[in-house]
């Protein structure tokens, strides 16, 4: 049994250590990190999962980005501690957080990832949405949180600016 709650500032370094455990060295060199650098994760959507003893088992973060003049969420990273993988915790983190996004005013979410995995959650390839290089366009995926939210959305994905 896991407790899901919003990530708090006190969780930051523990979540970063989980990401270091789950992902290859150099993860911060990926193009998606250039969009995140210096930007705070979206409050309320960036979540942690802790077990009954309070041990961090998984985490998911969301970041605001622009696609042309359109706002979107960038999902990622999502990670589950290796000792907790295979329990459906990653699925639960994704579904839990996506259910919160539209009520918070977000219409669309995108990510860079594996289409067969994320397709289970309604993500499809986004034609015309361009991540900074070097990103494989086949891995740029999106999901509408509101019907038609991706209709006509095209352009470069850029850093959030208020």
Write the layout of secondary structure elements.
Elements: E1 3-6, H1 12-22, H2 31-36, E2 47-50, E3 56-67, E4 70-80, H3 89-101, E5 108-112, H4 115-118, E6 124-125, E7 129-130, E8 140-144, E9 155-159
Parallel strand pairs: 4-5, 7-9
Antiparallel strand pairs: 1-2, 2-3, 3-4, 3-9, 5-8, 6-8
Helical content (DSSP H or I, runs of 4+): 10-25%
Tell me, rounded to a whole number, the average pLDDT: 93
- Principal-axis shape equals globular
DSSP summary, beta strand count: 9
Question: Would you tell me the structural class of the helices and strands?
Answer: alpha+beta
Beta content: 25-35%
Q: List the secondary-structure elements in sequence, H or E.
A: EHHEEEHEHEEEE
What is the first-to-last residue Cα distance? 38 Å
- The whole-angstrom Rg is 15 Å
Determine the number of helices (DSSP H or I, runs of at least 4 residues): 4
Would you identify the regions where 5 or more consecutive residues have pLDDT less than 50? none
Sheet with the most strands?
9 strands, mixed
